[in-house]
């Protein structure tokens, strides 16, 4: 599916090929990420979701093709300029032991520092705003490793917010979180998109959560895009079978009216 020509895009890939140790994961991919929306990549383990996200963030050098950010080839952007425009939260990030929440969030301001401009009042304001947005004021001076999983994930998101980029990429931001903390993190991202207009691209394993929170869904299998578009147009019983090799029934989510995938077990 090609986005409507009137749709503004933020990230695009042209004939993008990505590989690890010579093993091609993504081959010749053309893709467009809509501006100002929440886009989620879904698919089975090993299908290339995280690889694609890393390629779009310039954490993985392409074997071929190009990634563009607002029309600029990211391979040609200076590192600090890219970091001012694109934030990335990798899967299961790690921080030095003893680092406090405020110290972690302050690291998001490093792209804005140089030898002429050290820590400024603007940096301080951005850090405090990020802490407030993620509701971490009461935990700001606590070591990161004393927080719950959901609180730690909010702290990492706060660091990305302090970076003050218009676009955020998040690789499985709800991994290892219980259901309540998953909702907490996804609600936060939803409000960042709705209230601040951030373009958010994330990888999720839970198709139902992806449907509930996304404007745009991209389903991948074996490094190729099988379908993309609004969740209501993408998530069908045929699509779930094709992508996940799983029989299912699709009904309307009684809360959000988005597609709700009910797996069909062969044992029941």
Automatic annotation (TrEMBL):
Its main location: membrane. One of its GO terms (cellular component) is plasma membrane. Gene3D superfamilies: P-loop containing nucleotide triphosphate hydrolases. Keywords: ATP-binding, Cell membrane, Ion transport, Iron, Iron transport, Membrane, Nucleotide-binding, Transport. It is a peripheral membrane protein. PROSITE patterns: ABC_TRANSPORTER_1, ABC_TRANSPORTER_2. Signal peptide: none annotated. GO terms for molecular function: ATP binding; ATP hydrolysis activity. It comes from the Bacteria. GO terms for biological process: iron ion transport. Residues 11-247 form the ABC transporter domain. InterPro entries: AAA+_ATPase, ABC_transporter-like_ATP-bd, ABC_transporter-like_CS, P-loop_NTPase, Siderophore_ABC-ATPase. It is found in: Cell membrane. This is Iron-dicitrate transporter ATP-binding nsubunit. It comes from Halomicronema hongdechloris C2206. The lineage of its organism: Bacteria, Bacillati, Cyanobacteriota, Cyanophyceae, Nodosilineales.
């Amino acid at each position: 599916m090609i986005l409507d020509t009137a749709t503004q895009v933020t990230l695009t890939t042209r004939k993008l090929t990505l590989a690890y140790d010579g093993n091609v994961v993504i081959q010749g991919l053309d893709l467009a990420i809509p501006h100002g929306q929440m886009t989620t990549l879904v698919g089975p383990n090993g299908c290339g979701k995280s690889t694609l996200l890393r390629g779009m963030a310039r954490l993985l050098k392409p074997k071929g093709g190009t990634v563009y950010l607002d029309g600029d080839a990211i391979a040609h952007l200076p590192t600090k300029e890219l970091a001012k425009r694109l934030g990335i939260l990798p899967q299961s990030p790690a921080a030095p032991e003893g680092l406090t929440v405020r110290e972690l969030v302050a690291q998001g301001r490093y792209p804005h520092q140089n030898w002429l401009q050290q820590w400024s009042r603007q940096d301080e304001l951005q850090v405090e705003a990020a802490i407030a947005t993620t509701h971490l004021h009461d935990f700001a001076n606590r070591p990161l490793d004393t927080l719950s999983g959901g609180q730690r994930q909010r702290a990492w998101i706060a660091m990305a917010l302090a970076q003050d980029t218009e676009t955020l990429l998040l690789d499985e931001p709800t991994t290892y979180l219980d259901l309540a903390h998953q909702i907490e993190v996804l609600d936060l991202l939803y409000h960042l998109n709705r209230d601040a207009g951030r373009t958010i691209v994330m990888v999720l394993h839970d198709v139902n959560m992806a449907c509930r929170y996304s404007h745009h869904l991209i389903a991948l299998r074996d490094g190729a895009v099988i379908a993309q578009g609004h969740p209501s147009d993408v998530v069908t019983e045929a699509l779930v079978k094709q992508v996940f090799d799983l029989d299912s029934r699709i009904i309307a989510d009684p809360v959000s009216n988005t597609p709700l995938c009910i797996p069909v077990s062969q044992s029941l």
